Amino acid sequence: MSCYIHEDQSSIGTCVGCGKFICNECNTEVKRKNYCKACIGEMITEKQSKIEKLEDNKNNSNPMVFMNAGGGGGAASSAASSSGSNGMGVPVYTKSKVTAGVLGILLGSLGAHKFYLGRWGWGIIYLLFSWTYIPGIIGFIEGLIYLFSNEQSFAAKHDRNFFRRAA
Fold it and tell me: Which of 42, 131, 113, 160 is nearest to 122 (CA)?
């Protein structure tokens, strides 16, 4: 076998990135793996573009301010949420515990709360057994549990897209 670039030289192995045969001159070993110079160049370019995107996102990110519609001091809570000086990440929720709780209480026998939370298998089981009233009782209890749980624990258990963004 000969090198794909230097056809007059015999290959010493294949590139992990592209799978082409490479000679000793074309070989670059990284963590005991052989790469050709073209694949190394592509990896470096890809990493640089990812770093640039991260830097752009860091420079262009606007702080998120969550409005609390039912209490707490207005100026103090909004200043604390927008400053981000506590070193914690900003929680980003995609599922509402109130919506899941109300669906569980009102439409729990049909499994609406399970469908809302993305648990399609459980939702179908609730639908299949809705004539027994058991899913309705369980849905009511689950709805209450959702409503009385705190936002963080609800998101950690039931919100698949929940994450903490650095402030």
Answer: 113
> DSSP class of residue 3?
-
Overall average pLDDT of the 88-105 stretch? 83
In the block, residue with structure tokens 């963590």 = 31
121-161 per-position pLDDT tens digit: 999 999 999 999 899 999 999 999 999 998 888 888 877 77
Longest dimension (CA), the chain: 79
User: Coil, helix or strand for 167?
Assistant: coil
Confidence band for 38, pLDDT divided at 50, 70 and 90 = confident
| Pair 2, 10: CB distance under 8 Å | yes
Nearest CA to 103 out of 67, 135, 151 is that of 135
| CB-CB contact of 113 with 142 (8 Å) | yes
Nearest to 97 by CA among 151, 39, 26, 21: 151
